[in-house]
Fold:
Amino acid sequence: MSPSAAPSITADSPIPALATYAAIVGDDHVLTAEAERLAYGRDRLPFGNFRYRSGAEPGTLPRFVVCPADEDEVAAVLAAANAQGQAVIPYGAGSGVLGGAVPLDNEVTIDLKRLNRMVEINEINGTATVEAGMNGGVFEQTLNRAGFTAGHYPQSINMSTVGGWAACRGAGQASSRYGKIEDMVVGLRAVLADGRRIDVRPVARRSVGPSLIDLFVGSEGTLGIITQLTLRIWRKPQVERGHVIVFPNHEMGLTALRRVMQAELRPTIVRLYDAEETQARGGAELGLAHGTAMCVMMFSGDDRLVAVEEALTLELCRAGGGVETSRAPLDRWLAERFHSYSAKVISSDAYMDTIEISGPWDRLPAMYRAMQAAATALDDSVSFGAHWSHVYPDGACMYMTLKFKAADDQAAFRIHHDLWDRISTLCIDHGGSIAHHHGAGYFRNPWLVRELGTGHGVMRAVKQALDPRGILNPGKLALGPTA
Amino acid sequence: MFCAFCPNACRQAFPADVIPREYLMPSAMAYLAWSAATGKRRLDDAGRRILARRDTLAACRSACPYDLDVGAAIDQALAARP
Structure:
């Protein structure tokens, strides 16, 4: 199978296309000044912010930026881009942390935030239809006013778009009750590379071949541009109750959480911290012994259902060595749950990143030991902390926070790359996935290919069929000539 | 400098007609001012016009979880330019 054709427009090409796009969206919605394009040269990839901190870009700036008003304009823009061989990048709010929205070769960025309408809240079906560019926080607030919730609470909820949630196959903090984004999307509309539109009607389930929704949820703009989604929504819970449990160590905590999930219980929020994060997130203030592992939990729903799930879960935690303690760490987490932790570090001269992987229960303890050892062996300044959330009957997400210092960017980038390489390689070797919910962007390309093996060839074949000129976000998910 | 590297935690507070202008987000404006003040990037006429816009920054003042005054920070950064 031959690779997708490279887009024909390069950085040195003149910009005859500008008038084409201005005719579609209007002059005011084509951004050409460097000061305007600078905002689109990064997303929240930490490496990208390190580069911006030194006055450079992780890739390039976009050639220009187009801001279509609706799906018709998105379709017209894509049809024009495809005819010209002009590569494009769909852009929501740029909250991705793996470079999915970063221009790598002077692509044209398509800012989707003018597509920001709530189309319908269907109270009988329990669904909401929304345009892809709507801010996540605004979406949730709009649902709340109608008595509903999406149940999707990523840390980035206020800094992201609903379309971006789906494009990156994200997960929110309440996923153990409400599911991940792929569990919520029941219908969508997307525009293909040549401007044709696909409409997957919203129904609870279908059996008419493989899921077309799943072609686009997680595709990070490489197979089509999502313009509208229909999501399952839920009545706002009657009650919410929280607890903090301390285990003698994180391995006992992991065993307890496995038993909770395998007992078919659905705590709304579950976050088990390792020894380091336990101390940092309130354990020290509570006087918890070093080595102990703190778990914050919340339950929500009908009061009677919460009482049952709460009682059964706490019983299992006690049987697993857990002891309940003050709610203070949970209250602190709730107050800061939608804040950015990285800004403080990146705005100093330090370096940090987060790596989230998923693993089966029987491998997670060994994965933790191996990854912690590999990370801290790399450099004396590396600090390693982890927590487990997004729990399932068969495994969990392990979310690692890494911080380090370096004399300069060159030294830092070497440490940074080696951290990613060691942890990602160990993850694959232990049978996990290198990404639970942050997506892959371009930063994870080498390890994505290794994890998927033949499966990546299948992805390339789908890419070739849907985007033969290779204009859609080339280089992301290791698809396209800039990969 | 903090705001220049924040992912716009205030984003949901902005009016719908402002939101699509990514360069008017506090993080982008703060970065523009900071990078010019520190000599890392050149501030051209388009950049100066962007930084002269303060109407959009009013929304972030009440929504900022870090209680930052981005307008004041930008003024300070530009005044400190070599």
Notes: Chain B touches chain A through 32 residues (CB under 8 Å).
